[in-house]
Amino acid sequence: MKTERSGSLYSEICGYTPSGVSSPVRAFDPYPIFADSGKGCMIKDVDGNEYVDLCMAYGPLILGHSNIKVQTAVRKQILKGTVFGMPSEPEMDLLKRICSDVPCAEMARLTNSGTEATMHAVRLARGFTGRNGIVKIDGGFHGSHNDVLVNGTGGASRTWSAGVPDGAIENTRCIPYNDIESLSSLLEKDKDIAAILMEPIPGNMGVVLPGKKYLEDVRKVTKENNVLLIFDEVITGYRVAKGGAQELYGVTPDMCTMGKIIGGGYPAGALAGRKDIMMHLAPSGDVYEAGTFSGNPITAVAGLATIDEMLPCRYKKLAKRSKKIQKVMKDSLVDRNIQGCVNQAPSMFQVFFGRRFVSDAMDARGADGKRYDDMFRFMLKEGFYLPPSKMEVNFLSVAHNNEVIDRFCESFDKFLGGIQ
Ligand code: PMP
User: In 3-state terms, what secondary structure has residue 112?
Assistant: First the structure.
């Protein structure tokens, strides 16, 4: 596999941006591959190599790369204008769709990224309740703003970034996923909690599934303590079901955040929730939130075209395919006598080497990162682009057909077969 042009572009770009990437997750040694184009489930690099893409830009491309319906909608909108500084019909249509599809969404507000959505959701929760505390899940990721750059390794909350003032995170509490006792004892002790912000299906520690009734219990405990429940559905929104994980599990939060798929491949985010809460946003209310590009018509038409294409039968197919991958990968691990487990949610999956199960961030951190890295490099040579980190997720799109999935599973088995 020749990657000389990627190498030379990397040397050049490093002079202009740190480590040559616009977002840290994209970096890997010795240098990241530079993308040239994508079509369906395939991505082509600047050296002409083609890969089956299982990273899929970290989630937005549920229809695959360069979907014709999305391209057509965008082309039509570009001719009419790209940003207006006034409300527009595409923006309203997307809002209407979100409010009809997503169970908690009585109203929504569009932003430009998932980070903005969670940042404003946290501010809104604080403004609405008059309380300061925010609870998050250890290993949960909600974008790169100060309040949420907190992990709970070893039980002690700490920031994972320099430059975050102590004051910015002193109101953020961190608890393990799938541990209802931690949440209920925290909420009983601390009466200054505005909300818990959590991914209902964490997708930033590989994929981790909620244990039986965990989400129902979270809903119950938050209601009993009068604390808002915010589901961060930036990954799971329109992915695991049209209405996201809240539809899949039948648990309705007070608010949710979205991004990725609702922009159909263009920069997007949204916060949504109960009308009595949402009405506290400016200018109706006193919680400030704004953005020059928010509600962007290009994003809106791309998001709508994507959502329109996601018929119920497609969700069913995606769920079936990710289950199949999980089964075949698990069988390979057993047959090859290699310890590991595979977690999956509809159209998402991840393997954890050296673990029998993974149900929270501590488990995920304990998985064998060296073996994952070996697999990542092996699969690259086999023509599959996976997320470079074991803490990320493989995403399927409707363009990943059975033939591609079978090839992926064969290559995975071949990798296992080469382990001494
Ligand atoms: N929330 C979750 C659950 C995410 O996975 C991400 C990004 N991967 C974000 C928020 C931040 O979204 P964005 O990158 O669009 O700012």
Answer: coil
